[in-house]
Amino acid sequence: MAIRRICKYGEKILEKKTGKVDFDAVKKELPGLLSDMFETMAAVGGAGLAANQVGVDLRLAAISIKREDEPPLNIVIINPEIVERSGSSYEEEGCLSFPGLFAKVRRAAKVKVRALNEKGLPIEINAEGLFARALQHEIDHLDGLVFISRLPLISRLKLKPSLPGLKRRWKKLDESKLVRRPKPGADE
Ligand code: CO
Questions:
Q1: CB-based contacts of 14: which residues, under 8 Å, 6+ apart?
Q2: What contacts 103, CB < 8 A, 6 or more positions away?
Q3: pLDDT tens digits for 89-98?
Q4: How far is the CA of 185 from the centre of ligand 1 (A)?
Q5: What is the pLDDT of residue 188?
Q6: Which residue positions in the chain have pLDDT lower than 50?
Q7: Ligand 1 centroid to 14 CA: how many Å?
Q8: Where are the domains of the chain?
Q9: Dist. CA 146 → ligand 1 center (Å)
Q10: From ligand 1's centre to the CA of 183, what distance in Å?
Q11: Buried b (16+ CB within 10 A) or exposed e, 88-105
Q12: Which one is catalytic: 92, 138, 175, 188?
């Protein structure tokens, strides 16, 4: 397991639609990639991470939603598609490819997503709240869309002047150099 560097805004792979996953072709490397993605998310405190955010051109993402008094809800979505959306929610959102930047984005309040899980089995997810938001955010990543492209025009215009400076700073960040925290229950 390893923490991987997260691609930042401005890196081309974030703005390219990812390739559909041929499950049998990737199943050997998949467990390693997924455990790295969950470890990376845990290290930086993220709720979701798309494969192209760690430089891998595959249509898959990992989601980890914190819950009170329960372990986090960890879900893998492979070749996900949103098949239903309803309602509307306008809430603050961030992205590991834009460290420290938060902005309000309008999303559907509820979504139904069809995907494959980490075993290659078809799953259907009905989500609302933060989970629904994370699914929409990650599926956007897989389509090559970053969250600031979803901002209202006025917010985008306000953000624009500070982006070049932020981009330069973000480029230098390398999460793979973070010191790994010992796992709870580990021997040492
Ligand atoms: Co993101």
A1: 7, 8, 52, 53, 97, 141, 144, 146
A2: 92, 93, 147, 148, 151, 155, 159
A3: 999 999 999 9
A4: 30
A5: 52
A6: 186
A7: 9
A8: 12-177
A9: 7
A10: 25
A11: ebeeebbbbbbbebebeb
A12: 138
**E strand map for the chain:** 48-50, 60-67, 70-86, 89-94, 102-107, 110-116, 122-128
- C-alpha of residue 93 to centroid of ligand 1, in Å: 9
Residue with tokens 């981009």: 167
Q: Measured on CA atoms in the order 107, 109, 112, 116, is the torsion positive or negative?
A: positive
- Domain 12-177 homologous superfamily, CATH: Peptide deformylase (3.90.45.10)
Distance 138 CA to ligand 1 centre (A): 6
Q: Which two tokens stand for residue 172?
A: 């230098």
| pLDDT for residue 179 | 73
The predicted structure's pLDDT at residue 116: 98
Q: pLDDT tens, 31-51? A: 999 999 999 999 999 999 999
Is 93 considered catalytic here? no
pLDDT in tens, 67-101: 889 989 999 999 999 999 999 999 999 999 999 99
